[in-house]
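The protein record quoted in full:

***
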Amino acid sequence: MKNTNLIKSGLALIVILLFVVGCAASDTANTSSTAKKAKKEKAYDPTGTWEYSVEAPDGATSGKLLIQGAPGIYTASLETDQFGTIEIGDVDFQGTSMTGSIDVMGNTAGIECNFEGDTFSGAVYLGEDALPMEGRRVSK
């Protein structure tokens, strides 16, 4: 009788251990599949031609923002009436935000754009001034 109870207790312990290990493995599998889904979400694609305007103290100025490339290797430039084409240096995209810098007549200005679909808002930073900037995509 003692042997039967001992065997039953041993089997019950094994069943409990298998259940606990199975549950732990199931949580790991769910976490892994969630991580895979997150990786599969498509990254924002900012490429294309964007019409923009910048509110300056002496009035609004406008032009085109051209963005080309792929994640990690984007290039960008501004087409302006006043200064021609200005290359944006140090272009960096993080999610849906772009930062970069431009040289305008020997002065360095920073650019920050926050994209949402086919529109963006941001600013041009020149010294102490932050000039509001906004735009919309006109072609991909």
Residues 7 and 13 are 10 Å apart (CA to CA).
